[in-house]
Specification:
Low-confidence stretches: none
Structural class: alpha/beta
Number of helices: 13
Strand order of the largest sheet: 9-10-11-12-13-14-15-16
Helix content: 25-40%
CATH topology of the largest domain: TIM Barrel
Distance between the termini: 53 Å
Order of helices and strands: EEEEEEHEEEHEHEHEHHEHEHHHEHEHH
Strand content: 15-25%
Bound molecules: flavin mononucleotide
CATH superfamily of the largest domain: Aldolase class I
Mean pLDDT: 95
CATH class of the largest domain: Alpha Beta
Number of domains: 2
Oligomer: single chain
Number of strands: 16
Length: 404
């Protein structure tokens, strides 16, 4: 059960109270007036501030209500929105990164050229990726902004991507695939026409019988230029409500990759993509890999932080630093799969580290958490941060003689 802080107001059978915790099937409630002696309510209205969710009740006692079968889809929609909102709150206020922040780039040394014989204006950071030319090899990596803040966050990130001439990924489109009401959060091309936009779906959705259709719908929903499939086994296993069956995914990913009209990127989210998995996918035709290495945002830690279950909190701490450091993941993939297109994400925080990632074999560099935090601050903050990173990249290029 996830803990809700602040709790959500609920009214059931005329009784007010607060929902303090929720799972896919139950809500933990503190009733303001107690309902023990009353007939059990048959429905509840839970308010999130932006929306009211009417949920039929199967059973209720003083502390717990169980949702009726007929309302499980509504409850799940509410739960997903709450989860994404909690991710944002935790990312905004807590230290959610791997504890040592060991992304492996300390061990990477760039050459130094004391007299590079070049003028600032003659040095370009531009690159070509997936057939498009971008002003820098930097990608705003896919992040979900939740239901309440999703539109604002995505718009701010999309504005930054457009102004700076870099591609952008959206976060998981699962919410909108399950409930089209949320699709507006992701429709960024209506406003930012030239945006190179990468859709996002998780391995969880590949378990559905109609997974190919879901992937096609995800692309069509936002007119995506590519689709990222996120691989987050550790996060799922930490979550109480997460998936537990990961069989058959290599072939399904290959099937998606072969069936879509756009390229597919397989994307880890912080535990690192290993060579054996990448090779198995590459043998099946996948060419684009986001290594999502350790040393940046830690999803094990975030899942632990948002739970009120001591066992899950313990798991989150134990696995906080699990994974392949980003630099190691990039260099091993480059060595073993020379023609792979590699995105280095996970703990990239500045332009010097970005150049190190490119130097050891990445084609692009992805940045998540700092851009999400910037998007929570103001309209122009993400673009300001991107410009700073691009300038640092340029300084590093000149001083290391990496001038092409
Ligand atoms: C608030 C937040 C939400 C995220 N949501 C998603 C998501 O929905 N899908 C996904 O593939 N990755 C998601 N990510 C993971 C990022 O794309 C990235 O892989 C990860 O944060 C590591 O990069 P970083 O260290 O620069 O943050 C999210 C990251 C953050 C910070």
């Amino acid at each position: 059960m996830i803990k809700l802080n602040p709790p959500l107001p609920v009214v059931a059978g005329g009784h007010p109270g607060f929902v303090t915790g929720m799972s896919a099937t139950h809500a933990r409630v503190e009733w303001s007036d107690g309902i023990k002696s009353q007939p059990a309510p048959t429905s509840a209205v839970i308010s999130t501030g932006t929306k009211q969710y009417k949920i039929a009740i199967k059973s209720a006692d003083n502390q717990l209500i169980q949702f009726a079968e007929s309302s499980l889809a509504v409850a799940l929609d509410l739960l997903h929105g709450l989860r994404k909102g909690q991710h944002i709150d935790l990312c905004a206020t807590e230290d959610v990164e791997h504890s040592g922040k060991k992304n492996g780039f300390d061990a990477v040394t760039l050459p130094v050229v004391a007299l590079p014989e070049v003028a600032w204006n003659d040095v370009s950071t531009s690159t070509t990726f997936m057939g498009r030319t971008f002003s820098a090899p930097i990608l705003i990596t896919g992040m979900t902004g939740g239901v309440a803040r999703g539109t604002l966050i995505n718009e701010r990130l999309a504005r930054a991507a457009s102004q700076c001439g870099v591609p952008m990924g959206v976060g998981s489109q699962r919410m909108a695939l399950e409930n089209p009401e949320h699709a507006g959060i992701f429709k960024l091309k209506d406003k930012f026409k030239d945006l190179f936009l990468i859709g996002n779906i998780g391995i969880g959705q590949l378990r559905e019988a109609n997974y190919l259709d879901l992937c096609k719908r995800a692309v069509e929903m936002i007119n995506a230029d590519a689709l990222a499939i996120h691989v987050n086994v550790l996060q799922e296993l930490i979550q109480e409500e997460g998936d537990r069956d990961f069989r058959g995914l290599l072939d399904k990913i290959a099937n998606v990759s072969a069936s879509l009209a756009v390229q597919v990127i397989v994307k880890e989210v912080g535990a690192g993509l290993d060579v054996a998995t990448a090779k198995a996918l590459n043998d099946r035709g996948v060419k684009y890999f986001d290594v999502g290495g350790s040393g940046g945002t830690s999803w094990a830690h975030i899942e632990g932080l948002r739970s009120d279950d001591s066992l899950i909190r313990r798991r989150g701490e134990i696995f906080r630093d699990w994974g392949i450091p980003t630099a190691e993941a990039v260099s091993s993939l480059r060595r073993e799969i020379p023609d792979a297109q590699i995105i280095a994400t996970g703990g990239i925080r500045d332009g010097l580290t970005a150049l190190k990632a490119l130097y050891i074999g990445a084609n692009m560099v992805g940045i998540g958490l700092p851009l999400m935090r910037a998007a929570l601050v103001g309209d122009d903050e993400p673009a300001n941060l991107l410009r700073a990173v691009i300038q640092e990249l340029k300084i590093a290029k000149i001083c290391s003689g990496s001038i092409r």
